[in-house]
Structures are given as structure tokens and as C-alpha cells.
Amino acid sequence: MDNANNIPALLNKLCEELTLKQDAIKPAEAYELALSYMTSINEQHSIPDEKILCQKIHSRLSSVSGRDADKFNELFAKLKNTFVLKQPVSVLSLLLALSEAPQTTNSTQQLFPVPNLSIINSAAAFTGASSSKSTVGSSWGVNTPKQQNSNPSISTNNSNLVIATQSCNHANEPACVRDAVLAATGVKARSSCNWSRPVQILYSRIAHLGFLHDKLKDFIDPASVFTPQGLMVEGLVAAIREELTEYYRSVALLQSQVCESDGGGGTLRRVSVWAQDPLHRLHWLATIVHSVQHKRGGELATCVHRYVHHGDERVSALARRLLTSLTYPLLLMLTRWLLHGEIDDPYHEFFIESRNGVPIDRMWHDKYRVREWMVPSFMCREQAAQILATGKSVVFMREACADLPDHCDTTPDHAIHLQSLLAAHTRTGGTNTEVAWWEAEGLREGVETAHLMASQRLLAALTTHHHLLDHLAAHRRYLLLSQGDFVHHLMTLLQDELSKPATSLYVHNLTCTLEAAVRATNAQYEPQHVLSRLHVNLYPNCDGREDSGWDVFALQYRVDGPLGTLFPATCAARYRALFTQLWRVKRIEYALHDAWRDHTILQKRLKAMPEVWGLMRRVSCLRAEALRLCGALQDASCEGAEPAWVELLSAASEGHHLDRLLQLHHNALDRHSIHAMIHHSTQELQSYLGNVLNETLALRSFETTLHTGINTELERRERYEALKAERAARNEFAITGPDEAQDKEKRKIFIQFLASRKADLNVWARSYRGHVTTLILKLALHQEVSLQTLAFRLDYSDFYKRGDAKLHEPLTYQHKRLSEMGLHLAKTRLLDHTKRK
Amino acid sequence: MTSEKNAQIGQAREAFQMLYQVSQLLNTGLDAETLTICIQLCELGVNPDKLALVIKEIRKMGEHATQSKAKTLQL
């Protein structure tokens, strides 16, 4: 009894081994326990069936990972060939019993029901085939163990049936099966004409695999003309190649099973059952490949992404895997763009396009562009815009601001985010257990932080090194005339110069005047970088008109360097148009004030000339009217744009991103243009305003002629009086006949002059009021509310309304306001009424 | 004679390696020594289920002991 003696010794040894690691218990205790267990019930145990055991282990393994299961199959096959072990089964069952799988309930589900077949030969073959089946299923199927299990169990029932029914076909079955397996990889079979119909149908089903396989193979063929070039397509091809490799493996396994169990084991029907899963897989692969034909880059990703939403989990997982593989180049490009602002896109697949030949000063606006059609569908439009802005900021910092990103030594947050995305991708190799990068939360977060960081750095650099805010304020002060003392002084200095024809003006003279104006006013306290950019420029009209200096003069604020890209030529043109308009109104106001001064000086000498009093008074009233209109226009233009500027400045101090600031700046300019009525939505108003302004200028020239007329008359009378006094002093007759006649004649002429001036003034007043009324009407009818209120301000006392029936139209602001008030009143009355009730 | 024996030993070693791999695949937690003993026991006709039970029990004992020890240490 060598055995019996050995067992206790071995047990003792085992106990020692086991307790070695755990010093808490003594080997003796363990040995006692072991002996008690061993000797407790000494009944004979039934040695489990090898096949069943094998399948148990297999299913246990395959529930964890398919590769392990395959490995086990290999090992088991080898183990069977070595005959050293007498009891391999019991060793295996020991191992199985000791194995620590977390879910033991699952393994019972995966257990195949034992087929009680009459034909023992095929039972063995069946287990072989079904084990191969589960191998295939586990490596091919993704997350659906239950589905895999259901198929083989059906196949067991079917196989019985098939074997029963197809015994007549038994002779040529193996050849047929072999053909079918070959056909599955697209190899042409010899002939199938003499097979029975059911066999043909089964065969054709399997042969369809071959067709799909060929199609996929065409797609991944590098020489194929159908495959467009591109890195992302390469990614897709790689993924499909991987799928095909898996498929080949499964076909090879199948083939080995079929050949092994030669003699009726592998029936055509079993192969066709096996083919279910690969058919599904290959079918969807082929569908996806067909749909992505002639697509590149983002379009391709969008196309495959559509399948991710497929209801079938298997299709969805397949598409997910393909998409992860094919978007890897995109992720690389994206990371590079976000972190370094570089585009490495030889096949034009990235959704951001860099255009060649764009000068540096147009870089911010024109150099980079989102290719809308290339944005993958898993990215929203805002995200794409953010990505564009981020990379643009990085490039802008580097190119325009000449700012090297190296000076911050710590890696910024967003870099970590993106690198973790990359690392996750390379580590897992895109397995389906992890969340793919394109749907990970980290992507959105990474993009957002990258955007925030880049824009804040850019804005900080622009405000500190490049004085963005100073320049904005300077634009407003000097080009939009909000620095009052400077504008007034400049106007005074330029008054005479600008009245000359445009051809006799020279920029250098005007520049001297500008410098004088700066020196004399608060503008001298501006920082040097602002003053050095303020220039005078003349913009002669090309139509050959005789321009006065007023028409061509304009102030200019030259911005260059990085800011030049933010204030491009279009922006400068808008500022120029605004300046021209505002300057014009200002100039008219100034001229009217000038007229008032002349008038007041003249007034004192008019005591002896009562015949002009009436006319002078009337002119004065009309001038006041015109002045009020100019004032109201200027006020409105300041107030209308004020909120937009406030918003812009607060956004700049809060550190919003540059695109937002540019947009706010644009808005502010828009508001200004609307109130200066040179906006494209106020084109009609512009001409009416032009009429009014021209009329106002006409008043000034009218006054000039009036004043000269009066002045010459006054001087003549004074000379006449002086002559009279001189003669009286010389004791001569003060008045001679001809003198008196001449004086009378002159007075008569003067009276006539006054009368004609009066008539002129009446004509002028009528036309002026007509223009103003039209302007007010148009303003009141404009859709812009602030212009409607401007109409109300221009005619708050209903002066023009009383004069013109048109202004009674119900569309005007006043009317609306009144009617709203009326509505409100009616409502409150109604409420009161109901309350009383 | 010796060569035959050598071949047999080689075969045995190979078989053992395979079983060891299977054991690792199944995550049994047995080391090479223990596995050798277990295989020997099985070869001698010991009921594998019972053997498995024994090993599990001994492990459980060890765990209990360490846990109680840790508790006493904490106290």
C-alpha cells in the first residue's frame, strides 16, 4: 500500500506549504483538519465526464475573456496528447473547484445541455464543433454572452434533426462542408449543381460570407481605386483589417474542426449556424464600408458615427470600435492644434483649414476657417468654434505677438487633459470597455479649459503689452469725437484752413495744426503710444467734384502690429465714415454758433436800424431751432452707443475671449452707425438727414450774406453820418440835394435787399421744416426703437406735428406710446370696475 | 534507459507546465510547489473535490486567524 502511505505524507507536506504563507495557524492544526475532511465520508465519488468538465472550464474562462478560453483549448488539446498523467481529469476538476471566478452563477448558464444522441460518433464531433462555436462567439461576439449561448443550444436540437433528415445526403456532405468553409473566405467552389436544394440554400448562405469578405478585402486593398486617401481612412482600413484577421482565425478554427471530425461530424447546417454571427458582422461591416465610399476626414467620422446610434448593440459596438480606430489621427491633429497651433493635415481631413497666402494682418479673421462639412457629428458647432478660436489664439500669440509659450514652465491644465485623452487611447488601444475619446467627458472639458486658458493669455498679452483698451478708448475719443475740448479746439484751428478748396490743402500743414490742438487740450496727457498713432488724412473724392476742405478732411488712428489684425481695414473704414458724419454735424453746429456770435456783435450796432430787427429776430429763432436739432442728433448718437461701449469695457475687464470682444466692438460700431444714420439699415434716413444738414448749412450762408448786407449798409450810413458831422463842423450844409437823393436811393435798395432776404428766409424755413418733418416721420416709422425715441425728442413739443398732417399717422412713436398708455388706462379701469363689482 | 527516463521527465515537466498555466488561467492561487503536491495527490486517487475543500478550508482558517489577529492589534 504504497499509495496509502504516501497520501498522509503528501497531505502533511501540502499543509506545511499552505501554512507557510499564513503564520497564524500551525501546520499540525491544518493537517488535522485535512485528515478529518478526507476521512469523514469515504464514499466513492463519481469522476466527472471529461467533456463536461472541459466545457465547464471553457465557459468559465470565456465569461472572462475569449483569449483565455482559446488558450485553454490549446493547452487541453496538448495535455490530452501527453500520457504522463493518469488522472488529468481529476486534476482539472480540482483546479476548477479552486478557481476564483466572481460570478459562478453565470457559468451554469453557459453550460451546454448534454445531448443524448443515439449516434455516439457525432456526439463527440458535436462537442468539438460547439466548443469551436463558442470560441468564435466569444472572440467575435462583444458583450452578449446570452445570445451566444442561445445559438448553440438551438444548434444542438437542430443538429439532431439534421442528422436524422440528412442521412441520405451523407455521402457528399464532407466535401460540401469543405467547399462551404472555403467559400466563406471567398475561394470559389468547384461545382454545386448536383446538390439537393436545401443544401444549396444553406451553401449559398455561407457563400454570402465570401462575397462580403471579398468586398471588405477590396476596400482594404491599398491598390484599390475606391479607397480615398487619408489618414482617417487608413485608420478605418486598419480596424477592418483587424476584424478580418479575427474572422480568418475563426474560419481557420472552423476548418480544423471540420477536418478533424471527418466522417460526418461537421454538417453543413452546423457550419451555417456558425455562420450566423460572422454574417451579421460582415454584413454590417460591408454596409458601413459602402456608405463611407468617397468620404474623407470628418465626413467619414460622421458617417460611421451614425451607426453608433444603431439600436442593435452589436452594430453599435462595431461602429464604436471602427470610429475609435479611425478618429485616432483626428485626435492627434486636434491635440496638436490646441496645444501648438499647428496643422499637420496632408490630406485635408481636419475640420480646421489654414489658408495660404493670407497676410499676417488678416490672420485673425481670414487665415483659419472651420470646414463645416468636416466637423464630425460627435462635436457640436460651438465646440468646433471654440477649437478654432483656441488654436487661433495660440498661433496669434506666437506669430503676431511674438510671444513664446515656453516662459511658463508648468504644464497647463488643458495640456494634461488632452494628454490624458491621448494616453487613454494609446493604453487601451481602443477597446470597447473604456469610453472612447470622442464621447469622453474629458474632451469637452479639455477643449473648454484650453479655450479659456488660450484666450485669457491672449487677452492679457493684448491689454498689457499692446494696450488694447487704450486704443479702443482712443478710437472713441478722437475718431468718434467724445473728447470735447480737443474737438472744439481742433475745429477752431482748422476753421479757416478747411474752408479752402481741397486741392490747396496739405497733410503736413494740417498735422501741425493737429499737434497744436493736442498740445493745447487735455489730449496732451494721453500716453505716447496713443498720440503717436493719431494722424490727419485727406480722402479726396474721385468724382472730380470741387471739394472743400471739410469734405476730405478726416482724422485717422493707425494701428499696426497684432492689433492691426483686430482692427482691419474694414473697421478703419467704418470709423472713417462715422468720423465724417459726426464731424459734419459738429461742423454745422460750430458754424451756427459762429453765426450766433456774429449776430450778437452786430446786434449792438443795430439800434439805429429798426427795419432789420424783425428779420434778425426771425433768423435767430430759426437758428436756435436748427441748433437744437444738431444737439439732439449728437446727444442721441452718444447715448445710443453708450450701453454697447460699457458692455465692451466690462467684458474686457472680466477677461472674456477675444472673439466676444470683437463682436461687442462691432456691436458698438453698429449702434454708432445707426444713430449717425449711416448704417445699412438706415440708408433712407441718411439722405433725409443729409437734406436737413444741407439746409442748415444754407442758413449759415444766408446769415453771412445778410450780415454782410447789413454791415455794408451800416458802414455806408456811418460814413454818411460822419460826412454830415464833418460838414457841420466846417459850417457847411450838412446835406446836399444829391447826397440826400443818393441816401434815399441806397436805403431803398437796402429795404429791397431786406425784403428779398425775408422772402428767401421764408422759402428756406418752409423747405427746412419740410425736410425736418420728413426726417421725423421717417425716424418715427423706423423699426429701431431708439430712432423712434429720437423722433420723439426732436419733436417733443409737437411743434412739427402741428405743422404737418402726415405726422398724425398712427404708426409714429408718440401715437404708439399714447395708445399703449390708453390701453393701460383701459385695463386699470376695467380692473377697478371688476373690483367694485 | 536513461534517455527514456529523461524523455519521461521532460514530458512530465511539460505536462506540469501546462497544468500550471491552466491553474493560472483559472486563477486558483496555487503556487508551483502546492500544485505539484496536489497533482501527486490526485494521481494517487484522492478525491479532487475533497482536496479542493480542504485547501479552501485551510485558506479560510488562515484568513480568520489573520483577521482576528488584526482585530486584537487594533484593540
From TrEMBL, chain A:
It comes from the Eukaryota. Keywords: Cytoplasm, Cytoskeleton, Microtubule. It is found in: Cytoplasm, Cytoskeleton. It comes from Pieris macdunnoughi. One of its GO terms (cellular component) is gamma-tubulin complex. Residues 193-463 form the Gamma tubulin complex component protein N-terminal domain. One of its GO terms (molecular function) is microtubule minus-end binding. The lineage of its organism: Eukaryota, Metazoa, Ecdysozoa, Arthropoda, Hexapoda. Coiled coil: none annotated. Belongs to the TUBGCP family. GO terms for biological process: cytoplasmic microtubule organization; meiotic cell cycle; microtubule nucleation; mitotic cell cycle; spindle assembly. This is Gamma-tubulin complex component. Residues 468-800 form the Gamma tubulin complex component C-terminal domain. Pfam families: GCP_C_terminal, GCP_N_terminal. InterPro entries: GCP (IPR007259), GCP_C (IPR040457), GCP_C_sf (IPR042241), GCP_N (IPR041470). PANTHER family: GAMMA TUBULIN COMPLEX PROTEIN, GAMMA-TUBULIN COMPLEX COMPONENT 3.
From TrEMBL, chain B:
It is found in: Cytoplasm, Cytoskeleton, Microtubule organizing center. It holds the Pfam family MOZART1. Keywords: Cytoplasm, Cytoskeleton. Belongs to the MOZART1 family. The keyword Iron does not apply. GO terms for biological process: gamma-tubulin complex localization; microtubule nucleation by interphase microtubule organizing center; mitotic spindle assembly. This is Mitotic-spindle organizing protein 1. GO terms for cellular component: gamma-tubulin ring complex; interphase microtubule organizing center; spindle. InterPro entries: MZT1.
